[in-house]
Specification:
The complex is a heterodimer of chains A (477) and B (1085). Chain A is mainly α and 477 residues long. Chain A is 51% helix and 6% strand. In chain A, a hairpin with a 2-residue loop joins strand 5 and strand 6. About 2% of the residues of chain A have low confidence. In chain B, 11% of the residues lie in helices and 47% in strands. Chain B has a 22-stranded antiparallel barrel. Chain B has a five-stranded mixed beta sheet with strand order 15-20-21-18-19. In chain B, strands 8-7-10-11 form a four-stranded antiparallel beta sheet, with no helix packed on it. The N terminus of chain B is likely disordered. The chains are: A mainly alpha (477), B mainly beta (1085).
Chain lengths: 477, 1085
Amino acid sequence: MKRTILIIGILAIGAMFSGCKKFLDVQPKTSLSEEQLFTSEAGFQQALSGVYGQLAGSNLYGDNLSMGFVSALAQNYSTLSTSAGISLQQTQLLNYASTEVAGYTNAIWSSSYSAIAAANKIIANTETNRSVLTNNSYAQLRGEALAIRAFIHFDLLRMFGPEYTAGANLKAIPYKKDVNENAIIPATTADVVKFALADLKEAADLLLTVDPIVTSDLRSRRNKLNYYGVKALEARIRLYSGDKSGAATAANVVISSGKYAFVTQAAAGAISSGLVVRDRLYFNEQVFMIRVRDILPTVQRYFRFRGTLDQTLTRTPANFATLYETSSGGGTDIRFVYRLEQDGGGLFPSKFWQASTATTTITDNLLDQYVPGIRLSEMYYILAETAETPATGVGYLNTVRQNRGLSNLATTLTATDLTAAITKEYQKEFYAEGQLFFYYKRIKALRMQFRNINMTPADYKLPIPDSELQFNPNYGN
Amino acid sequence: MRLTIVIIIACFLQVSASSFAQKVTLTKSNASLRSVFKELNQQTGYNFFYTDNLLENSSPVTINVKDAELSAVLNQIFAAQNLDFVIRNKTVVIKASELARQEIISGFVGDAKERKPIPGVTVSIKGTKSAVQTDKNGKFTISIPQGATSLEFRFIGYKTVDVPISPNSNYTIYMEENQVTLNETVITGMVDRKVSTYTGAAKTITAAELKAVSPVNIFAGIAALDPSFRMIPNNKIGGNINALPEVTMRGQTSYPTLGSELVGNPNTPLFILDGFQVSLQAIVDLDMNQIASVTLLKDASATAMYGSRGGNGVMVVTTILPPRGKVEVSITNNFTLSSPDLSVYHMLNAEEKLDFERRVGFLNSYRGQAINAERYKAVVSGVNTDWKSIPVQTGINNRTNLSLRGGDQSLTFNLTFSGNLLQGVMKEQDRKNYSGSFTLSYKTNKLTFQNNTIATQVISNESPYGEFSQYLDLNPYWKPYDENGNINKYLENINLGFGVAGSVVLNPLMDINYNTINNRNKNFNLRNNTTVRYDFSKSLWFNGALGITKVNGTIDNFYSALDSRFDGIADLSARGSYSKDNSDAFTMDGTGSVNYNKNFGKHGITVYAGFRLASTSLNSYNVSTQGFPFDRLDNILFAAQYLNSRPTGTESTINNLSYTGSANYSYDNRYFTDFTYTRDGSSAYGENNKFGNFWSAGLGWNIHNEQFLKDSRTINLLRIRGSYGSTGTSVQDPYAAQFRYNLGTSTGYFGEVGAFPGALGNPNLSWQQVLKSNIGIASSFLDNRLTFNAEFYNEVTQNALTTVSLAPSTGFPSYTENLGKIQNKGLQFDLGYTILSDPRKGLKWNVSVNAATNKSVLKELSGKLKAFNAALNKNNADQTSENAQFIEGQSTTAIYAVRSLGIDPVTGQEVYLKADGTPTFVWDVNDKTYVGDTRPKWTGAINSNFLYAGFALNFSFNYNYGADLYNTTLLNRVEAVDARNNVDRRAYDLGWTGPGSLSPYRRITTSPTPTKLTSRFVQRDNNIQLSSINLSYQFKTALVKKLGLQNLSVSATTNNLGTFSSIEIERGTDNPFAREYTFGLSARF
């Protein structure tokens, strides 16, 4: 009897010891742990979709980094009323000390880095949990995550870093490659470019063999950072850092792929069944675009009539006439003819006017709910800018102009005139899309269109958010 | 007669001498004696010899025995008969019993020390109800029925004596005084320890002590008896019966909660009820009549066995166990009146208020004069409403406890029902608590099994009247009711026309009219505790216990569509709201232990080894709806729509696993030492820190047992002990340590499910380690008349949990980390003296005073807390009320304000002191400095306990000395008043009135500027509270017996009768404090 009890006791205690580790491993029911998520390919896919979802949020490309904040910086909209529900007034004035701008920069900074952290988790797990992935999915998931990391860092650099030529060796932004609580030393502008290009190199190598867009032109891949998106981004970054030939090479990969065609006049101006059919986004030109599911309220708020005109984001008809040079042949520009619409007595940029199309399923190639990431036209602009001679450059530019319903520019243009022509194209093409401000910054433009004050280098560098400066001890000089 | 006795004794001797081999198994119900004899004859072979007429008057037999000795069976059968028996040569001879069989015993009872008689001692025959009392000479006479084995002598203040009844006994009994009753063991909740050789700082309080101080509020009673236990006063909730008190033991080991990193109150001690961890709420709802004892465990030696749970101290509560071999019914009723303490509110009356308004300057306009005229009319017509009395009531509370307990030597039970119906001092605030419990205990000589099931249902409602303080604001010249007693919709509705703004004031009582459910809380708690003990030998035993608790709670809130909060909302489907909160908690707690306890000569050893497995899960969700067309339809199903598109809620599970070993060694009852080691694991900790190690070591010395003091009559007890060790507290979010991914529609992309990181988990997250050192002294002098106990402690929380702000470039705003250091240093002592003691007369008068001081200092702060300070000052450039700040080296409860020199008599402006000491008129947030501490320097109680002949009179005063308080009454009702509202009497003089006027207050004007945070309103709050007076009477046994009772006592108690304070402040803003008058009746059958 006594012995039996003793044995039972010992067995019981032994059983407890062996099971204790598991007992203390409690998983909540309302969320998933990292370990649980990355045990299957589906989990990796979900994590990646989560990052795209974050990019599509209004803090990033769903608003601030496309039609909202950065477009306001680029003077795409007239001065706004203080009473308006849209608070971009101080942004438009480039008043970077204002709490309004600080609010935007804070949101952009922290949302960007949380997306980077999420991407970094995927990158790290593709190695640690390599065994659950097939070779193809490993290459695709890792490639995309690396590309996203480069994409976001580069946009942060364009906002918060110094202009490249003057600030290549100045501290710019932290280039985060791992996930932990430690704030790292900010990389210099040149280093950020270097890191981003390295990420893109690996991404391109991985994606080239597995990305279905390469072989089968899968349309839905345009919503992801696909192989051509990676090359296009590389072209953009190389141009930013002054590597013209590299930029041209990368841009040529995109153009020569033949996957992307310019919008037809018919599609851009289609009116047969109203707003639904008209392709305002030039869908086929999107090398990479971001699907923003809940874009409609933002568009309604910004670009539709709401009681009074000063509560919306637009410019006067005269400004639009200036922008599209209607007095000198621009009146036929499809971007002018079909992308400015009347609503409630005002003229609105209708690039994002996208009627909801209730009948279509989500995987259809809808014309709505998209924000452009990288366009085909930008590749032509890059080729034009990096061309050996102005004449070659004009040729590339004319390709775009023809497709926009404009006459050809003379091939005798000087280099300066070509640059001016490219600037005008950027202004027209990227209206309310968020690329224009960064273009101005890259070419160190002294004036932005519709702003009568000279730009200083400080105007082109948004202040690093206070919270980063306060809690990242490495920012001190 | 003498002969008879001899014969009987002889018979007995014979019976007991012959040991039968025969075992009898017999089950009979109302059987005739004859049939029983027949049966016995068959089983044993014994013959029964009797005559028929002898059995004529015998009573039927009911018996149920198994494998019993024949003699025992016969004794049992004959106990109820007028017969007797003798056994000779396997023959049982039945004979008539003789009338003179009853023996009369007389004797004398005296005091062992003084050898003087003790009158009134209860002398009872064990196992029966017959009892007598000694006369004034200590003499008694009692008749003993056959079968009685021993006499019991019982008297309050003396040790109960059992004397076996035997022939030729000398019944002269000397009773010894009972010096220490329950305090001989320390109940740690895991293992009981002898107090004489225990190094831990622990305080045991008996139920009687507790009830003498506070019969209705357990925490108030403990706070009076042990000053280290503190109820943090909360001026906002006042005497709200539904609000949970905030209690601490010794000090604050954690940082205040700024975010979600800590769940619940991080400084609450651990509560152990009958061996199982329970919530603070469970203790609040516990019926005090069920409590047997409360033990407070404080230092490392006492709490290290609780590992990561013991850092804030442990309160161990045990409940009454059913007595063996007795069946009794007891009934206790407490009737309490709780009346609002309105003595602290001094508002102006109607006439004064009108005069005040005139002098403030409201009449300097046409509008003001017109409105004043209306008000004047009201005052003249006699309106003088005492608004503060409108939302309050005298609560009628009744608590009844009925219990039936008893059983035999092996099987005992306890069945208890109790109902506690409480009414708050705010109208319609109530709390109904019903509970039932059943305890079954089975004991054989080696195995003890006990099961305890408790079901508790609590239903509570908050007052629909809302905050009490809003009624203080209302002007006395307004009338709440019209002539017919109906509620006026408007208190004032003056229309002046001509484009001049009138005055429209809605009556807050209007909403009371509508059907409202204000925080109706229904809570059902089912608890089942099972314990098994196996005694391997006298010194070795095993314990196993399993506790299961299920709590289900709902909170309902309903507001009618007519309620004023929906004024201005036209949409019918948005008027009226109902929200329902549903929570489910499930706890499983299992322990197993081995105990070894043995003395080898002078060496005494106690060893305990145990493990614990526990799992706690909580699920809750909340649904909010709106649109209730008709206010009687107060069911959530009538809602028109949801208020929010989705329900909210939480889910959490925490699993714990711990191993504990503890050993005590004592040598010659002089030197003793304790060691404890606990390895504690929790699922809430980070994966790199799943287990924590906690330990303690203690040493003690019983100086009074040394040779040189052994026979001293001056020093009866002198014990010093010290301990050092580590314990922990852990109350963080159960999943804070994990890296989590959220999945939802908002994280998706392009129709795909998306997962996005929620928060940065900290894999190193662990408990807060509290290093405790303690030195204690226990002593008593002068024949135990004077006692003195003191404890000095130093507790350092090493790695306090706190939220750390991260650079956003990490991708996360913050995370939880073990960082920061808090020190608690303190001293507590109690001194008791027995002024009168004459136990023979039942006279005893004890007085005691206790005191405690504690200093909580923030030693190290995290960046987040520093940033919190900076942000607080940056974002509130004009601070008007005190706000928490955390500064290294300062107290956790410090008050920070700009120092003030008072009001300049010339300008009427306040003169501040800048940080550098120069005076200025300009208030600057950067000049804020330490100006006081809300924690009293000394706090404690003075108790007096007087007993005489069954009467007990108990006084208890609580005192607080050296606390500072930001006097919000001065601020809000005396100086920075909105003169349109009613004000404190002290505001009547308007403060500073003009150049040359000396006043501590600024001028009151029609358009006041807010008073900035100033040291002017920091006042020293020294107070004494008459926390309780209790008078009780225990009825004399003789009288009680006549009523068929065993015990009867009545008591009357008053709590919080008065407070004497060095400052005048409104206590209880949302809810007034209550004074309680309790009448108690307790009877045992």
